[in-house]
Amino acid sequence: MGKRNYYDVLGVNRNATDDEINRAFRQLAKKYHPDVSKEKDAEAKFKEVNEAYEVLSDPNKRRNYDQFGHAGNDPNSFSGFSGFSGFSGFSKGFSSGGDFEDIFSGGFGDIFENFFGGGAKKRRGFSNQPIKGKNVAARVTVTLKEQMFGKTVKLDLNVDKTCEACDGTGAKDPKKDIHTCTTCDGYGYVNIEQRSLFGVIQSQQPCPDCKGCGKVVTSKCPKCKGQCHYRGKEVVEIELPKSIYENQQLRIREKGNYGLNSGPRGDLYLEISVKPNKYFKRVNDNLHLDLPVSYLDALLGAKIKVPTFDGYVHLKLPANTKINSVFSIPNHGFLKVQHLADVVI
Ligand SMILES: [Zn+2]
Ligand SMILES: [Zn+2]
Asked: Whole-angstrom Cα distance, residue 154 to residue 143?
């Protein structure tokens, strides 16, 4: 069974004030405290109440919960997400929109070591290092209502998949057709001598025959033609958070191209477009609607029905209401969320 909604657990409504939440918590904590309670599953209930209170009494956690549900405060599903700062995923010097070829597990360090000295000679190539797959980008269009309430979208992506025929090795027969490169003797680089004004300079360059991986494939896999990957379709399901902003970028971990040598998949960068709505529009976190009323209603005052995305609301129009008057109806707009450059899922 899934977790119960925290608001239901505390028996308060979604717009409850901090005071109401505190009061509800104190009452329930008294009722279910395992030392005093005679209820059957007091301990489990007490835990549940505590957990709900911990989230709803903290403004940041509550906002995450309102937008993303239980996942909003679950460290496993939102890495680096707490407090909306310090995205840990970016600590590898990797930024969105920039270099889409991220080499995994300190790959750069090894390359520099291999090419520019420092014990490089003892090490052979880096053919077996896991390499993270490249990131892919996609755009998804939602309606204004879906933007408000969130939506699960299914995307048909074209990604580089690991070739099953050769298990990602690129060889027709991985046991027979992969050999140590003879040009570089498996080191992955070659020494080049250049004459200059200062004498002969030696430098190292990636091996032209094995492209630096130290291995050559003598008979290529017919399915992927030695590329280790092939382009294939994949359906990816993503839960869009509530109240997401237009053009906000979502980074979805490991839904991009498959990696090499069992490296992890790249990430998917998803941008959100919103279809214009004929009647409603979003302004900051508010939902705006131009509502025509009759001349008589405006003159004499009336009770009018106002459509919103979660049902009709009655509004009392005062007598002598002027054209273009603005009335605000609380709690029918968007959730207040911080506008983030990048949300990581
Ligand atoms: Zn080579
Ligand atoms: Zn293959």
From this structure: 15
Ligand that comes closest to the CA of residue 125:
1
Half-sphere exposure of 325 toward its Cβ, with a 13 Å CA cutoff? 13
Q: In what order do the strands lie in the sheet with 136-142?
A: 136-142, 268-274, 249-252, 342-344
Mean pLDDT by 10 residues, the chain (345 residues): 84 90 89 80 88 90 84 53 32 34 34 36 53 89 95 93 87 89 84 78 80 83 86 92 88 90 88 94 94 95 95 96 94 81 66
Task: Kindly write down the DSSP assignment for every residue of 176-191, as one continuous string.
Answer: TSEEE-TTTTTSSEEE
The residues that bridge with 84 in the sheet, in sequence order, are none
Ligand showing the shortest atom-to-Cα distance for residue 208: 1
User: What residue ranges do the domains of the chain occupy?
Assistant: 92-129+178-217
Residues surrounding ion ligand 2 at CB below 5 Å = 163, 165-166, 221, 223-224
